[in-house]
Amino acid sequence: MADLSAPPVPSDHIMGVYARTPLAFERGEGARLYTTDGDVYLDCMAGIAVTALGHSHPKLVQAVKDQADKLWHTSNIFTIPNQEKLATKLTDATFADVVFFTNSGTEAIECAIKTARKYHWAKGQPERIDIIGFDGSFHGRTLAAVNASGNASYLEGFGPPMPGFVHLPYGDHEALKAAIGPTTAAILIEPVQGEGGARALPDVCMRGLRQLCDEHGILLIYDEIQCGLGRTGKLFAYEWADAAPDIMAVAKALGGGFPVGACLATAEAARGMTPGSHGSTYGGNPLAMAVGLASLEELVKPELMDHVREVAGYFNQQLTGLKDRFPDVVLDIRGKGLLIGVKLATPNREFMQHARDEHLLIAGGGDNCVRLLPPLTLTLDEAREAVGMLERACETAQARLKASAT
Question: Which of 95, 118, 252, 351 is catalytic?
Fold first, then answer.
């Protein structure tokens, strides 16, 4: 068993912002990762909901190879045909009319914030700059994104909080109604929180947010960077509530591991985004668009969404059973679809190590949760294997609890 108190492996030449484990992988296939030492792990992290089609998906691999032989990059001052194709596929499948392509989810959030503020500026209301967010939220690592996020620790050491960002308790409807005022521009929320502990916003609350925004003339922004693109069993999580946003940030699964993000918006919400108001050097380049197209063509398949719902139902049933069997270890099962949160009574980082000892990879999360974010292509047999590994991790955690009590 690994030493849970061992410090992360240091590096002399990499900035020390990650508490890395000593695992190093050299290849992947489907839901399996293979270390440089020859060990095999079942991957229920998927690069934090990124490799949604599994590792080395043949369509994505071929898309990279084919495009790499043609053209990698041009400037956005030129027409990029596959941008047009991917944008059309995204708008045909969603509420949106227009798309801006980025390299990451953080950049998509930046675009969403700028789009919302510029919308009100274009309407002659430049004072409307406030973005209302919620505790436990996570929207990225740039300065604007961490200011929008509801986690004060991400701001420590980076100067004073930026004006224009308001944070409210998650689920406090009265506080939200009271916070809306003449300087409010938008409400920004994850339909299912990822980093914040896999909390799923009830459908009735999503519909209530839509109505509130319409009543006050403000914009509704969804962050579906983690929960979107099939993760919940529909292409986007907002579809469960039939409560479309005005602006939405996506990324992660869109490139299947290649850096691709996008900010989607209605034509009305994007009315202020005119030439020169925003841009990107790499965003939407030919190589990224080729991969994004290949990925989206797979993600929109109805049979994949059926599969996600089937595997998610199995996980929910089995994990609820683990909760009943190990009440001193597992406190709650959360999330939606294959964005699954397990709230623990024992430290989540210790539990992650117990899972790694079983050769299962899971992610951490806020509120002392661990997250299961497997590839959407995970088979039922692989799900059964994962549950068995989690059961043994629970047994280890329970044994450690008993040992510490004696």
Answer: 252
92 is catalytic: no
Q: How far apart are CA 319 and CA 321, in angstroms?
A: 5
Q: Give CA–CA dist 27/8, Å, rounded.
A: 22
Cα dihedral sign for 315, 195, 230, 299? negative
Catalytic residue selected from 43, 223, 246, 367: 223
236 flagged as catalytic: no
Is the pTM above the cut of 0.90? yes
Residues 208 and 270 in one domain: yes
Per-residue pLDDT of 251-309, as tens digits, reads 999 999 999 999 999 999 999 999 999 999 999 999 999 999 999 999 999 999 999 99
Q: Residues 301, 229: contact at Cβ < 8 Å?
A: no
The parent domain of residue 382 ranges over 25-57+302-405
Asked if 128 and 233 sit in the same domain, the reply is: yes
State yes or no: is 138 an active-site residue.
yes
pLDDT tens, position by position, 65-76: 999 999 999 999
Cα 312 to Cα 41, 202, 259, 348, 392: the distances in Å are 20, 18, 26, 22, 20
